[in-house]
Amino acid sequence: MDLISLLGIPVALPSIPRAVALLMNELAAPEPNLRRVTQLFGTDPAMAARLLEEANSPAFQAQQQISGIPEALSLLGVQQLRTLVASAPLGTTSRSVPGVNLQQFWRYSLHTAKLARSLAGSVHHNQIAAYTAGLLHGVGELLLHLGNPERVQSINRLVGPFDPRRSKLEQRLLGYCYSQVSAGMARRWQLPQVVVDALQYQSAPFENSVYEPLAGVLHLAAWRVRAREAALGEKELAVSFPGEVGLALGLDIDMVLQQDPIDWTVRPDPGDYV
């Protein structure tokens, strides 16, 4: 299946059941706590994508494309948010996305978003766009598994969905990888070009004709979190560190590791938004 055909498949990305329940409870209050609502949307890639797609739709005619959750929430009314959340499909079982551990996916996405925001701040880049890109960067992997399950399962037998080598193997066997799929989805959601470019070139930041620093930030953040998921040791971290990307941003491996804003020993909660 080619990339265009894959992107044409209508799929509903699953949301975190606990996040949906907490959002429904908060939005049922006479005066919902906006900070809490922002926190909860910021933990769920699928919910964030639905929110940003709605905020960037022609119905709102925003003066500029919306890249962040707080901006999107300022456009939608409480009733619209209730409808959006109530219609969210839940990722309740391992069969929701065959071949993907959704608990791991949600944890991985949240960690990448936090780390991308932290790295963006250190290089004076847009932290809101970085968080959004980090949260959504892996959604293409979900579509790959939902849209082309048999082919992708054969890839899973070689390396797992969160393996640091994943993008190169997908590119070699499919002709594209989750990065291009994520970018195609973001383009369909009418997200800002800076976010689309970051997603498109996250696996190979220098392939774009015009270098987008956010792609480099996302590349480093994803490298760090994937390395953590793979339990790489100190020597493996040093060997696998994408030095050219770090050099372009003025970040060496020590600076990236020191930016960790995450207590890796604590399981992320849907209300966790540091």
Question: Describe it for me?
Answer:
Helix 8 (127-136) crosses helix 13 and helix 8 (127-136) crosses helix 14. The protein starts with a helix and ends in a 16-residue tail after the last helix. The chain is 60% helix and 0% strand. It is globular, with a radius of gyration of 18 Å. It has helices at 3-7, 17-27, 34-41, 45-55, 69-75, 78-86, 102-122, 127-136, 139-147, 149-156, 166-174, 178-188, 193-200, 213-229, 234-240, 243-249, 253-258. With 274 residues, it is mainly α. The chain is built from 17 helices and no strands.
Quick rundown:
This protein has 274 residues and is mainly alpha-helical. The chain has helices spanning 3-7, 17-27, 34-41, 45-55, 69-75, 78-86, 102-122, 127-136, 139-147, 149-156, 166-174, 178-188, 193-200, 213-229, 234-240, 243-249, 253-258.
Describe how the helices and strands are arranged:
Layout: H1 3-7, H2 17-27, H3 34-41, H4 45-55, H5 69-75, H6 78-86, H7 102-122, H8 127-136, H9 139-147, H10 149-156, H11 166-174, H12 178-188, H13 193-200, H14 213-229, H15 234-240, H16 243-249, H17 253-258
Helix pairs in contact: 2-3, 2-6, 4-5, 7-8, 7-14, 8-13, 8-14, 9-10, 9-12, 12-13, 13-14, 14-16
